[in-house]
Amino acid sequence: MAAEKTTKRKQKKSGESAGAGGGELALRTQDDVRSERRFEPTASVMAVISTVAMSIGSVLVGAGTYAQWLRSGDVGPHPAAPFLLAGGAALLIAVALFGQRLAKPVRVGDAGVALEKDPGELDRLEWRDVTRVLLSGGVLSLQGSGTTVSVPVAVHRAAAALIFSEASRRIPAKVEGLDGSALGSPSPGTGEKLMLEPPQVAGQHCKQSDKLIAFEKDGRLCGRCGEVYHKDSVPPRCLTCDALLKP
User: Fold this and answer.
1) pLDDT tens for residues 162-190?
2) At CB < 8 A and 24+ separation, what contacts does 134-137 make?
3) H-type alpha helices, the chain
4) 123 and 39 co-located in one domain
5) Are residues 113 and 87 part of one domain?
6) C-alpha torsion 48→52→53→57, nearest 10
7) How many domains does the chain have?
């Protein structure tokens, strides 16, 4: 009986050790399904005021231009033209200096964080390329080599909460020491779910061996941060985020 108890105790200890050092494999192929969530900004009062002021300023400048130089016939400039031009110019300058622009939609998911400049144009920063995460002055910023994605918390609180949560899970070393409790926890199901196209792996270099990946089928991805590896050079753990890639 004593021997049996000893054996069970050792097996349990061995299993606990494997669980502590193991975890779910994060290795993926480019064919695995990936998705992200899209968040529209909430309109702030200052952004609405700035937009209205810019519209009024543009109308005043247009009317003043017509009244000063484009009136037909020999009637000459309208007496109110200088005031229209001056008032419109003053409004446009004030908006340019002190106004607040409408925020862009934000996307958060397996491919990192992206700002929508236009419906078909994105400023994207993948998780593997993030070098620093900052939370200051009501703005959550992710910095990479030559790219910075800044998200204003006031109009993108749901997106900011999800970004911080995902960054803490995917690239924990980059958010170490930051307190994101003020952002709150991300609400499940918020944002519009979008499916992502398969990533372009061919033509990239393996993070481990620097070997060129000539064919898509030879590429492997870290499912946590998106780092790229050649199938013959996959390390036990991701070199970027330390996710488990091999059992």
Assistant:
1) 999 999 999 999 999 999 999 999 988 89
2) 135/164, 135/178, 135/179, 135/180, 135/183
3) 2-21, 45-65, 81-98, 157-170
4) yes
5) no
6) 150
7) 2
